[in-house]
Fold this protein.
Amino acid sequence: MSENYSAQDIKILEGLEAVRVRPGMYIGSTGVRGLHHILWEIVDNAVDEAANGYADKIEVVLYKDGSVSVEDNGRGIPTDIHKDAKVSAVEVVFTQLHAGGKFDNEKYNFSGGLHGVGASVTNALSEWLKVEIYKKTVFKMEFHSYYDPKKKKIISGAPVGPLEDTKQKTDKHGTFIRFKPDPKVFETVEFNLETIAKRLRELAFLNKGLSIHLVDLRDDNKFYNKTFKYDGGIVDYVLYLNEGKQNLYPLPVYAKTERDGILIEFAIQHTDSFTESVFSFVNNIPTPEGGTHEVGFKSGITKVLNEFAKSNNYIKEKDLSFQGEDFREGMTAIISIKMKNVEFEGQTKTKLGNPEAKNAVESATVDELEKLIANKKNRPIFDAMMKKALGAAKARNAARHAKELARAKSGADATKLIGKLASCSSKKAELNEVFIVEGDSAGGSAKQGRDRQHQAILPLRGKPLNAEKKRIEEVLKNEEIRTIISALGTGIGSDFNIKNLNYNKVIILSDADQDGAHIRAILLTFFFRYMKELIQDGHVYIGMPPLYKVYKKDVTVYAYDDNDLQKAINKVGRGYMLQRYKGLGEMNPEQLWDTTMDPQKRLLMQVTIEDAAEAEKLITTLMGDDIDGRKAYISEHADFNKEDTFMDKVNV
C-alpha cells in the first residue's frame, strides 16, 4: 500500500455511455434495491478507505429534498490532472466507467462494491451530484443530468465545470459526496431508513472501531441520529445476533490471522438453538450463498472438533459418530475474509468462487482452533460444544426416520396429501405455482376459482408448528409441515434439492389479520430455517388479498391498503358502497380469482433475504422465547397512534 495516492493511480478502462440505457446491467434493478445500490457504491468507497487503514469515520445524511450524502475522513479522491484523460482525477472517477484506484493492488489491498464502476454509475443515475475533497484546501465539483434537444437524449452525469480549488483552508481530510437519485430512472426515489441502518450497522460490525454516523433530516417529527461503532468487531456481531438466545458459553471464540495473502477473521458461539447460523463476508460484501471460504471454514471446524471428540473420549457409543452438522447445531458464526482478485459466481453473484480461499481458510481455522484448545482455560467452552454435538447426533439419528416420513412418496402421508392438495394439470414446474391457503373455506374458493392448468391449492387445516422453538424431528411430526414438504418435493435440511421443486412460485395466501400474519410468520420461519434456498432463489411469495371493496352498480374497485382506499373511492365516485373483508373465506371464487389469483391483476410480494444476518436476528426476536425482546421490537416499530377511519368513509 502507498500513502502517495495520485491521479496516475486511477486506471481508465472504458467510457460511461450505456448506464442510463440499461441501468439494470449495473445496479440489478430500477426498484428499491437498485436505488439503495447506488448509495452502497459510495458508502463502499468510504469503507474501503477505512478497511485499508486511511479512515475511521463515515457520516451518511438523508435530506428533505430526497438527496443523500456520504462523508469520510480518508485520503480524499486525488485532485491532480490525469495524464491520459487530461482532466482531473475527480472528473475521471465520476464520468468514466471502471475508473478507480482499486485495480492497482498497491493502492488498495482490499475493496468491496462494484470494483470501480460505483461512483460513475451513481453519478449517471442521479439528477445531480456534488463532491468536495478536503486536502488542506476545499476542492469542489458538480455534475448534473439533463435532456439535450439537439442530440435528443439525456446526457448523464455531465460536469457543470472543472474541479475547482476554492482556496478555502481546512483542517479536514477526506471526501464528501451528495447526490439526488433521478426519478426518471427509478420507480421510487425514497430511501428506506431501516434498510440503510441495517447495512451501516453490518459494516460497523465488520470493521472493528469504524464509526458510522447516520442522520435522517427528512421528517421534523422523527429526527434520527445514530452512531454505529463496535470495538469488539465481529465478536460484538455474534453477541448481537444471539441476543434473546441462551448462550452455552459467555463469550464467542475469536481468531484473526493471515494466510496466503488472505486476511481471515472468525467468531463462533453456540446457543440452545437447534439450527446453524453461519454468515460469511468477502471484503465486507455478504455472501449468503456461501462459497469456497465458507466450505473451508466448516471443514476446518469439523476436523478440529472431531479430533477433540476422539482424543477426549466423547464418542463412546458404537453406532454414534459425529458429522459436521452436529458441531454446527446452535452455532452462530461470522467468517469475514479480505482478499484481492475476488471471483463471485452464482445467479446473484453472492457466492465466492476463488479456489485458493478454501484451503487458506480451512488451514487457518484448524490452526487457530487448535491454539484455542491448547489453552486449558478454554476447556469448558469446547466441552460445551461437545455436549451440544452429542445431543445433535442423537437427534439426527432420530430425525432420519421422521425425514423419511416427511418425503411422503408412498404410504399413509401420500394418501393424506392427495386429499388436501388440489394439484394442477401441467407437468412443467417452471410454469406452475402452489397457493398455501389458510383454512378450508378459503381453500374451497381458491380451488374453484383457480387456473387448473398451472395453479395448485394446498389448504392448511391447522397452524403449522413454529420451527424456531423445536428440533427438526419435532417439527416433522406436525402434519401441516409434512404436507407442505411433500407437496413441494424438495426435501429439507441437508436433503434439500432445489431441482426437485414442483412449483416455480410458492405463494402464502392468508387473511389480513393477526392470525393470518402469524401463519405467514410461521411458514416463513420454517422456509428460512430448513429451505433457505427456496427464498434465496426467489420462489417464495406472499399473496396480497384486498382489504376493501368499493362499488356501485357496474363499477367495482378493490383497495389493498388504507392508502389505496381513498383512491378507490375517488375512482368509483359519489354514491359508492364500501365493504371491508375480514378474511379470504368471505370471497366467492370469482372475487378471489379477480383480486388475488389472476396473474394479470393480483399483487404478489416476493420474499427476499436482503440481509441474512438481520433476518436471523428478526426471526429470533419475533418467533423465539425472548418476550422482552419481542415487546421492545413491537414498541419501536408498531404505529399505535393509527386511527381507524373506516366508519367515516362508510358514512360519506
Notes: The chain has 21 helices and 22 strands.
